[in-house]
């Protein structure tokens, strides 16, 4: 990360699965005219590529090799893996669960770290994930930890899946989320937790617009927002 990149402002939005961080990150970035990093997509893409290639995900070196060689392009709502739009496939629960399972592997995390930091370019970046504020961008001037109770998150995910034409069972989704939350929070490598200087927002009863407004209000209070970096 060069000196120019290190001076580019970043807003990190971390939180558990289905907390709405991706939607909020895109909306905040749109208002500010900034770029977006969906770090979870990189882990999901790695998981999907391993599935498609029949890679043994217990082989950490093999998983990391897949991640390093990913041919990926992000074009708006389209996510291209080796030229194929896999935006819908990477949101499949099987892929999400596998991504959560391989995420603690240090070789994989090291393989993706440089890729994630390369997204930092002017005028600014909104990065969402699970360790954006704690590991990837620890110098970010604004760090958000977005949380919501598991029932609210399961209902949101169930609605999203049904709107996209997928079958979904609320009870099963809640069970999967609780298991994923436990795995993400207790893993030895970069566990899901707020950065010490993060601002926690509970979106359980907030609308998308209300959550976006809360993030933008916090950004407006930072010294960096006064230096002309905000669109």
CATH class type: Alpha Beta
- Category from helices, strands and their pairing: alpha/beta
Uncertain runs: none
Give the total of beta strands. 8
Q: Proportion of β residues?
A: 5-15%
Shape: globular
Count every helix, treating DSSP H or I runs of 4 or more residues as helices: 10
CATH architecture assignment name: 3-Layer(aba) Sandwich
Q: Major sheet: order of its strands?
A: 2-6-1-7-8
Quick one: biggest sheet? 5 strands, parallel
User: What are the secondary-structure elements, in order, as H or E?
Assistant: HEHEHHEEEHHEHEHHEH
* CATH fold-level assignment: Rossmann fold
Distance between the termini: 23 Å
EC number: 2.7.4.25
InterPro entries: Cytidylate_kin, Cytidylate_kinase_dom, P-loop_NTPase
Family: Belongs to the cytidylate kinase family. Type 1 subfamily.
Domain Cytidylate kinase: 11-218
């Amino acid at each position: 990360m060069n000196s120019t990149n290190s001076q580019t402002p970043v807003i990190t939005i971390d939180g558990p699965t289905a907390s709405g961080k991706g939607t909020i990150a895109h909306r905040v970035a749109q208002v500010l005219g900034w770029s977006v990093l969906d770090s979870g997509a990189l882990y999901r893409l790695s998981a999907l590529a391993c599935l498609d290639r029949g890679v043994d995900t217990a082989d950490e070196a093999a998983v990391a090799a897949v991640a390093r060689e990913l041919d990926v392009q992000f074009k708006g709502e389209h996510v291209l893996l080796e030229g194929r739009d896999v935006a819908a496939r990477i949101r499949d629960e099987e892929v999400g669960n596998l991504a959560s399972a391989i995420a603690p592997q240090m070789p994989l995390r090291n393989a993706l770290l440089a890729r994630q930091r390369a997204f930092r370019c002017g005028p600014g970046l909104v990065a969402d994930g699970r360790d954006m504020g704690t590991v990837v961008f620890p110098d970010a001037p604004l760090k958000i930890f977005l949380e919501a109770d598991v029932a609210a998150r399961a209902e949101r995910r169930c609605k999203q899946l049904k709107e996209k034409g997928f079958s979904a069972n609320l009870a099963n989704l809640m069970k999967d989320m609780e298991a994923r939350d436990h795995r993400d929070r207790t893993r030895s490598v970069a566990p899901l937790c707020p950065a010490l200087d993060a601002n926690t927002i509970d979106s359980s009863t907030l609308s998308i617009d209300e959550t976006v407004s809360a993030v933008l209000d916090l950004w407006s209070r930072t010294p960096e927002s006064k230096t002309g970096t905000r669109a």
